[in-house]
Amino acid sequence: MSQDINFLKQNKNQLEQRTKEDRRSFLLIVTISVIVVVLFITLLLVSQYYQNQIDKVATQRAEIENNILRGDQRTKSYLIFYSKLQKLVDLTEERAGGTEALVSTYQYFTRKNTAITESLYDYQAHTLELTVSSNSIFSLPELFSLIQDQNFQKTFQSVEILSLNRLGNGTYSLKILLEI
Fold first, then answer.
1. What is the Cα–Cα distance from 116 to 105, expressed in whole angstroms?
2. Which residue in 124, 106, 127, 123 sits closest to 115, CA to CA?
3. Residue-level pLDDT at 5
4. What is the mean pLDDT of the chain?
5. What pLDDT does residue 94 have?
6. What's residue 178's pLDDT?
7. Could you say which residues of the chain have pLDDT below 70?
8. Residues near 110 by Cβ (< 8 Å), separated by ≥ 6?
9. Distance CA 89, CA 71 (A)
10. Per-residue DSSP letter, 177
11. What is the pLDDT of residue 41?
């Protein structure tokens, strides 16, 4: 009988041991399951929040587009005006360099015996073609020294003498090409 009693005691101890392990396993599984469920719910809520934000932005954009398409004349006229103004600004910026170069070279070459008689500005090529006239051959060295002056040369990307002609009335005509 003593073996039977020990046998039962052993079985009881084994059963208690298994029960403890089962409880630990159960607690671990429940904890992991709760964490997974909480993460899933959190991800679902975050996803829903961002989807709502995207939907709001899409709705606002569609509303703005509809206002423009519906004929909001102020918005249309403003956009047209802005576009025209931007084109004018671009044209003005492109031509500003040529205007400044023309004024400065006019002042630079206007001397007692020399003057600019023709000018042609190509704003697309950024070039300025000048015809400088001199009333005597004795003012030509002064004119060439003005062209070869280092400060004048630095003002432009390139300075090129195209031609020198003597006209029928005795004046000399010098064509110069300046790249701005």
1. 9
2. 106
3. 62
4. 83
5. 66
6. 84
7. 1-5, 71-75, 94-98, 101
8. 116
9. 27
10. E
11. 94
Per-residue model confidence (pLDDT) at position 4: 59
H or E segment at 132? strand 127-134
The pLDDT, as a whole number, for residue 44 is 92
Helix (H, G, I), strand (E, B) or coil at 110: coil
Q: Which residues contact 109 (CB under 8 A, 6 or more apart)?
A: 115, 116, 130, 132, 143, 146
Helix 73-109 vs helix 2-70: crossing angle, to nearest 10: 70
Per-residue tokens: 93:
């910026």
The single-letter code of the amino acid at 108 is: Y
Contacts of 119 (CB under 8 A, 6+ apart): 102, 106, 128, 129, 130, 131
Kindly state the tokens that stand for 178. 């300046």
Contact between 127 and 133 under an 8 Å Cβ cutoff? The reply is: no
Angle at which helices 140-148 and 73-109 cross, to 10°: 130
**Residue 97, both tokens:** 């360099």
**Residues 82-104: b if buried by 16+ CB within 10 A, e if exposed:** eeeeeeeeeeeeeeeebeebbee
> Residue 143's CB: how many other CB atoms inside 10 A?
20
Neighbours of 138 (CB within 10 A): 9
